[in-house]
Design goal:
about 290 residues; mainly alpha; EamA_dom; EmrE-like; transmembrane helix; membrane; EamA family transporter
Length: about 290
Amino acid sequence: MWLLAAVLSAVFAGLTAILAKCGIKKTDSDVATALRTVVVFVFSWLMVFLVGSAPIIAQISARSLLFLLLSGAATGASWMCYFRTLSIGDINKVVPIDKSSTVLSVLLAIVCFQETAHLAAKLVGTALLGVGILLMAETKHAKTHEGNHTYVLYAVGSAVFAALTSVLAKVGISGVESNLGTAIRTGVVLVMAWLMVFLKGKAPQLKKLDRRELVFLFFSGIATGASWLCYYYAIQNGVVSIVVPIDKMSILLTVGFSYVVFREKLSKKAGIGLGLMTAGTLTMALLG
């Protein structure tokens, strides 16, 4: 079941990136992140009440709660970097750098959780992922200075925080129902996202939102919520060093949709990189 959950997480995550890209053509990335988080927050708590896990919140240990809050903070930071990157970079260039969090997550899982079973397969798979990411992370030929350089920094920041998210969540969600853990983390992200909107003075932009983009942001939030619920179920019940690579293969869907929707084509070099990332993930999933 946890393997199936990891696959579904990847599917919904792939849809998230495309829907989010459609929703931030005119909308500021911080405002878009805050709006999407509202949808994810409502969706995640709705799932908590549907599965009847709300009463369990009083039984969560202080340690688990602390790590869930830290995981939420890391997620919030990752999101802010990620959606800022999407707003100024090609999705085919942004996503591979962001997915480099996979390499960090696997290595941290091996060290922190002693997930050393089939270690050789995991290390080989991680190496293939790393090389594939480097091949795909091409420089974007943009008209602006910001598009050429800044988006890479934001994408790297997104990857680092995403890697921390997985490790912190694994600790925090131990002994906590996965839907409830996801909902608590989402609350932290919600506070961070709206805090950034008001601190940066972007609240007035809420009056000028494009209705079409709002629809895309709404469905992007739904896709994110579904991805999170599947992902943290898989994290709680499965092996982190296997779950994370499978989840990150949402890049296959993202690349496919980006070609259809945005006509963003892969170069031969990037195509080889995508192939290596796929091979690395399959190596860990099948042999790890």
